[in-house]
Design a protein that fits this description.
By secondary structure, the protein is α+β, with helices and mostly antiparallel strands. The chain has two domains: about 1-35; about 35-120, no CATH class. Helices cover about 35% and strands about 20% of the residues. The chain has helices at about 35-45, 55-65, 75-85, 95-105; strands at about 5-10, 15-20, 25-30. Strands 1-2-3 form a three-stranded antiparallel beta sheet, with no helix packed on it. Strand 1 (about 5-10) and strand 2 form a beta hairpin.
Length: about 120
Amino acid sequence: MKRLIDYDADTLTAVWHDYDESEDKTYIYEEQHVAPILEINNIAQNHDGGHGKGLNEYSRQGIKNSWWHVARIPNSVILHWRKQYGVNLALWGKDDWTTKKIKGLLNSPEWKYLRTGLGRV
């Protein structure tokens, strides 16, 4: 029987316990509701339509204030990148290979929906 163990409202992540009697196995797994994260990214991307270099108003305001929020990345994608590409997001800006790899992933059409703007990272 599937049972909720924990829920994090900030990350929209639920931790579940499930027991399969036929195999006598216990499973613990996480599920993250990513639709709201991706919708917020889409809204940010389309805010003000963009100007030079694809920077929308959201990106330009951040850069003016010495920061640039380039993406919202769901936990499931962070784990996928770690397994598939060996990327540790915690090393962003600290390790040249990691930073370059993450920039490449965020700039690729496959992961465009993670970005908050349309310009290149």
